[in-house]
Design a protein that fits this description.
mainly alpha, Growth Hormone, Chain: A, globular, 17 helices
């Protein structure tokens, strides 16, 4: 069977992201516990994680603009992946929670640098393969790595290894990430040549683009980081420390399935699948904070759906209203709004955690559900453009 160059490119970049997710999601499965073991409180952990996500999203506008202006897409991508991947095993060297937090922020910064260029390069293949399928397949490969990484960390802990040993072991997957990226660069020096048809339909930033950004920011405010979740599971002793990475792996495995299904369904059904995914994601918080292992276990697939929604469906929506000639910038600016929402949500949930779990749950559910009417209005504005 002969596959199209566009499909091979998506798979190649998927392999890069697979090894990348093994690295930073493996580290992410123990970041909360590790920071806690170094003396950080729940509020500090949530705020550090939220700040990291804010940097990880807001700096994408800078890297996207630099890539569009210079045309050095691959150079920007390499710099981002190098920082993103190598900051994780460097956590093994942290002697205090402040140093560990610095490495966490570096990891998110590296991800910010490389994300817009990767998503923009993938957009050139959507005319051939379909927007939902391209981003769904790429996210599924991401999440496959995100499933394996925590399992590897759990296995190291099971063998008696420390958190530091687990971080150090992830140097292998970090180097494989960079090796796979070299293969992608050699095989596809100019991804723009993959484009068939006009996949960036707008001449400027449409109103629908800005509405989608505000809607996504609301959703992000209610999508909690795993650092706070893992801290909750560990401190309440709902889950033994060894099994917390397994809980993350279970969630990300569900995200693999969700990404493929949501991407494919979007190509056939359209916006209604976005509404369904957001509703399911909003059910996560009421379950995970019930101080019940069974409820927490049921909540994990819903958290995976939330991440599949932001990693697949939101990219599809933005890909539909990309301005021609500013693809990297458009993805980057979108994530400024998303990052602001995430930072606000992380600060609020971190402070509410010790104050009132009921208020925390209410905030998360209201924030995510507030995005629903905005996505509806954005879709109507987009229809008016066509």
């Amino acid at each position: 069977m002969r596959y199209s160059p566009a499909f091979i490119f998506v798979l190649t970049m998927g392999a890069v992201n697979f090894f990348g997710d093994v690295t930073y999601e493996g580290g992410g499965s123990i970041n909360g516990q590790f920071l806690g073991s170094l003396g950080a409180s729940a509020a500090i952990i949530s705020i550090v994680a939220g700040t990291g996500e804010f940097l990880g999203y807001s700096l994408r506008a800078v890297s996207g603009a630099v890539a569009d202006r210079t045309g050095r897409y691959w150079l920007v991508t390499f710099i981002g992946y190098a920082i993103n991947a190598l900051a994780v095993p460097a956590m093994a060297l942290a002697g205090s929670w402040q140093i560990a937090a610095l490495f966490l922020l570096l990891e998110r910064t590296g991800r910010a640098i490389r994300k817009p260029t990767v998503e923009a390069m993938l957009s050139y293949s959507t005319g051939t393969l379909g927007k939902g399928w391209v981003y769904g397949l790429n996210t599924a490969l991401d999440e496959a790595g995100a499933t394996l990484g925590p399992l590897l960390v759990a296995f190291i802990l099971y063998l008696g290894g420390s958190y530091r040993a687990a971080y150090a072991a992830l140097l292998v997957s970090a180097l494989l990430t960079l090796g796979a990226l070299v293969v992608a660069r050699i095989s596809f020096p100019l991804p723009a040549r993959l484009e068939e048809g006009k996949t960036a339909p707008m001449q400027g930033f449409a109103r629908a683009y800005w509405i989608y950004m505000v809607a996504a920011a609301c959703f992000a405010a209610g999508l909690m980081s795993f650092e706070l979740i893992s801290y909750h599971l560990a401190t309440t002793k709902l889950v033994a420390g060894l099994w917390i990475p397994v809980m993350l792996a279970f969630s990300t495995f569900c995200a693999v399935i969700a990404s493929l299904m949501l991407g494919k369904l979007y190509d056939h059904v359209g916006m209604p699948i976005v509404f369904v995914a957001i509703f399911l994601s909003a059910l996560f918080a009421p379950l995970v904070f019930q101080d019940s292992f069974v409820a927490a276990l049921v909540a994990m697939p819903l958290w995976g759906i939330g991440y599949a929604t932001q990693d697949t469906l939101f990219k599809v929506l933005i890909a539909r209203v990309l301005p021609e000639g500013k693809r990297n910038t458009a993805f980057g600016v979108f994530y400024i709004g998303y990052g602001v929402g995430w930072l606000i949500g992380s600060i609020v949930t971190g402070l509410l955690y010790d104050y009132s779990r009921v208020a925390l749950i209410a905030f998360v559910v209201i924030a995510q559900c507030a995005s629903l009417p905005l996505f509806f209005v954005g879709a109507r504005q987009e229809q008016a453009l066509h």
